[in-house]
Design a protein that fits this description.
By secondary structure, the protein is of the alpha+beta class. About 15% of the residues lie in helices and about 35% in strands. The strands form 3 sheets. It has an 8-stranded antiparallel β-sheet with strand order 9-5-6-7-11-3-2-13, with no helix packed on it. A 3-stranded antiparallel β-sheet has the order 1-14-12, with no helix packed on it. Strands 4-10-8 form a 3-stranded antiparallel β-sheet, with no helix packed on it. α2 (about 10-25) packs antiparallel against α3 (about 35-50). The longest helix is centred in the first third of the chain and has 16 residues, at about 10-25. The radius of gyration is 19 Å and the shape is elongated. The chain starts with a helix and ends with a strand.
């Protein structure tokens, strides 16, 4: 449920909350107990937010899995202008503050691209945020094709974390990064892939199949 690598991203938040809780506890003779309870509640919510359960991706080599937990916000055919410079199918997933925020590789492959870009911090639920918000773009390449994943910031999410690096070989469903607090993750698949989800579906990163590649 919890991993050191993921909790490390919460170290300053947890430290501040622990100091606040300790200070309120020391002042309990002068103030009522509810502020301390609120601080403890915030600590528990932070631990809940940074949970990171182990998952086993489906073995089907033709399956492309979700790169994040959340709700499918949009499915479009778009021009991927950063890595492939070709038209691809894009599945956008919105992550609320209640979702697991670890990102996972949609396919097995080698990380061939990882670059962060500055930008705005618009509402991540807006599909147009894709071209405007600060983001990090990833590419995973295998013998079938190149697959692109984009981590986008939002109104609350301001920190994108990358754990993998270019040249790493990752397994399908393996963690490669995370976004802190509500955000958006996009998966770009080849045009000949069959999308297996629809707008409004809830998906789990590394588990839910969002697309299926054609047989060779």
């Amino acid at each position: 449920m919890f991993r050191f690598q993921t909790l490390w991203e919460a170290r300053w938040i947890l430290a501040a909350l622990l100091v606040l809780t300790g200070g309120l506890w020391c002042l309990r003779s002068w103030i009522t107990g509810w502020p301390s309870l609120l601080a403890v509640g915030l600590i528990l919510f932070t631990l809940y937010f940074f949970r990171d359960p182990d998952r086993l991706a489906p073995a089907d080599p033709l399956a492309v899995v979700a790169a994040a937990d959340g709700k499918v916000a949009d499915i479009r055919e778009v021009e991927e202008s950063t890595v492939t410079h070709a038209k691809m199918k894009r599945v956008g997933i919105f992550l609320s503050v209640f979702n697991v925020h670890t990102n996972r590789a949609p396919v097995e492959g080698t990380v061939t691209y990882s670059q962060e870009y500055p930008g705005a911090y618009l509402d991540a639920r807006d599909p147009d945020a894709s071209g405007k918000n600060a983001c990090r773009t990833w590419a995973f390449q295998n013998e079938r094709d190149t697959f692109v994943v984009r981590q986008l910031t939002g109104l609350i999410a301001r920190r994108i974390v990358g754990w993998s690096k270019v040249g790493d070989r990752v397994q399908k469903g393996e963690r490669f990064g995370m976004i802190r607090f509500g955000s958006r993750t996009e998966i770009y698949v080849p045009l000949d892939a069959e999308i297996t989800v629809k707008v409004g579906d809830r998906v789990e990163g590394g588990l839910s199949v969002i697309a299926r590649l054609p047989k060779l």
